[in-house]
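re: ur question from earlier - yeah i can do the single chain one, its not a big deal. heres the input i used so u can compare w yours
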Amino acid sequence: MPTERRLYKVSQAIHQRQLDIVIGLDHIHDQHNLSAVIRTADAAGFGRIIWTPDFKMTEKINPEISRGAERWVNLEIYDDLKPELLKLKSKGYKIAATHMARKAVDFRSIDWTKPWVIIFGNEHRGVSDDIVDIADENIFLPMFGFVQSLNISVAAAVTLYEIQRQRQNAGMYDLNASEEQVRLLYDEWKLKEDHINIESLIKRIAGPMPESDHYDGRDHSKFFLEMQERYLKKKNI
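and the output i got, formated as tokens:
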């Protein structure tokens, strides 16, 4: 059975998930980049990535980088992103492509509290022209040094946390999710296998996170105590 702390964390994550933000990866091929974006997406509260790989044989997720985030993020693979993007547009989503065009705007100027798909392009070629053509906005990250761009995983992290910042300021992470969202994520995350009862998640668990049952092993570590003693002597405490 899950601990109270574990149940609390699952409850918070399932109600904080921002399902109307979709991340698009247009012909991203590097294993590190893919895994890092998945990890950042989960950390910022986003759970859907649509991806067109750059090669026929797709890269595998690197668990040392993703740290298990692939369980919580729905990664969908497409031969061509454009048809899926058009479907999302028909449902009210807008599309932002990270593309330095003449009319590109600072990514911080966008109202990210609306439903958006954010497209990050290939490590060398950028976003495909056919996707740029259907984008509602072209966005860029300002550069104040000599380099012209950031690594795609870094650019994604910066952008996703600006989206998270705006939505958190708007109180969107404090809302209770619909029962439909809870049931959807319960199935996607296979929480039944963790012996979690879905009825315990329908309403968000309130209050602070329960204390951990595990103590910090450093408190009883001989090495840690010796280092602490040296530090105190050096500071004459």
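Residues 152-169 form the longest helix (18 residues). not sure if urs matches, ping me
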